[in-house]
Amino acid sequence: MVFGAGLSVVGACHGQDKLQGVKNTQVSHPDKRNQVSPAPHEPVIVENYSALPDAGINMKIGDIVSPYRVFSMFVLPGETTELEVIYPQPNTQYALFADNQSVAHAEKGTWNWTAPQNPGEKRLEVRDDKGNVEMVINAFIMTPADEVEGGRLKYYHIGPYPKESEIKNKDMYIEPEGFIEVNEDNMELNLSPHFKLKEFTSKQGTRFPKFVYLRSPLMLKLEMLRRELNLNDIPVDNMVVMSGYRTPQYNRAIGNVKFSRHVYGDAADIFVDNDGNYRMDDLNGDGNHTIKDADVMAKMISELNKRSVYKGLIGGLGVYGPKSHRGAFIHIDTRGVKARWRKP
Predict the structure, then answer these.
(1) Where would I find the Peptidase M15A C-terminal domain in this sequence (predicted)?
(2) Predicted local confidence at residue 195, as pLDDT
(3) What DSSP state is assigned to residue 226?
C-alpha cells in the first residue's frame, strides 16, 4: 500500500497472513497405504457478510489504502480524488456510485471523482458486477478554511493557528485547508468500521453546527490498534475516543501545548471501556486500575511499530496514569516521527 510520501501502510491485505517460525517438514511413514486422509474442514458460513469490518477488496483513496468495508475521505469543494481497486477478486468487475449515480471509469478499476462545489457529504459505493456493495466511502466535503472570519466559522469558535514563523518543521505542522461541518444529520456517520464522526468533535460546549479537522491515517491507526488488541486476547468491544480534534481556542483554554497534534487532526486520546463506566478497563488482569492498563495498549503500538507495513502510521505515543477525574489512557498520533512520553 502507498501512504503519503512513498511510505508503506498495510491494512488487511487478503491472503497475506503467514505463520511465523513454522517449517514444512516431510515425515517418512513405513506404509503410506495405511494412512487415512483427514476429512476436509467444514465450510465457514458467514450469515451477515456486510457486518465484517474487512472488504473483499482494498481501495486506494488518494494516497492511502483502506481494507475496510466502510471508510472516509475529507476533501475540498471541487477537489478531484483518484480511487482505485487494489487486490480485486478474480474475474470480478467493479463500479463506483456516488449517491446511486454511476461514476465513469478513468480506466479499469480506477475512477477520478470530483467533489461537488458545496460542503456536505456524499456516499460513495464500490459495487461488484453482481450489485453487491463491497465498500462504502463517506466523503466529507469540507468548508474551506478561508471562510473563517475573526477566528470563527458560522459562529463556531476555532481560534488562531500558530503563525508560520513559529513553526520549525513546516511539513509536520500544516494548517488545515478546510473543516468538516458536524451536525445532527451527519454526526452518526462512520469514519471507519468502529469510529463515528461525533467521537472526534472538540469538547467545547457549543450547539450545532460544530467543525472538525481530521486526517484519514488516524482512522487506520485506530482500527489497527483495535484489531491488534483483539488478536492478543484483549477483547475490545468499545474503544473510547476521550479527545480527538481540538480547536486552537479549546486547546489553549485547557492549557495544552500550542503545537498539540490534536489541533492538526491526527491525534486521539483513547482507552478501552467494555463495561461502560468511562474508565480504562483492567486490561492486565491484576484487579486494579492503574497506568499498567495503559501500558498494555502502549505495548501493542510498540509491536506494530516493528512492522515495515506500519511505517506510514508512526507517530507519538503518550501513556497516562489515572487521576481523580478520569482513568488511565494513551495518546496516539501519526506525526511521522516517533515521540514517547509517560505521565503516571
Answers:
(1) 195-275
(2) 98
(3) H
What number of other Cβ atoms are within 10 A of residue 260's Cβ? 18
Q: How confident is the model at residue 293 (pLDDT cuts 50, 70, 90)?
A: very high
pLDDT at 47 over 80: no
Q: Say what percent of the chain tops pLDDT 90.
A: 78
pTM of the model: 0.85
At 296, is the secondary structure helix, strand, or coil? helix
pLDDT at 48: 53
Q: Which domain holds residue 94?
A: 1-10+52-141
Q: At what angle do helices 291-305 and 216-231 cross, to 10 degrees?
A: 110
**Starting at the edge strand that comes first in sequence, how are the strands of the sheet with 133-141 ordered?**
70-75, 133-141, 120-128, 94-98, 101-103
| Residue with cell string 463491497 | 134
Per-residue pLDDT of 303-328, as tens digits, reads 999 988 788 999 999 999 999 999 99
Cβ atoms of 86 and 65 closer than 8 Å: yes
Please report, for the domain that includes residue 127, its CATH number: 2.60.40.1080
Nearest to 317 by CA among 325, 308, 329: 329
Output the DSSP codes for 32-90. Answer: GGG--PPPPPPPP--S-GGGSSEEEEEEEETTEEEEESEEEEEE-TT-EEEEEEESPPT
- Residue 315, judged by CB atoms within 10 A of its CB (0-12, 13-18, 19+), counts as buried
The answer to whether residues 135 and 183 belong to one domain is no
* Domain shared by 80 and 209, yes or no: no
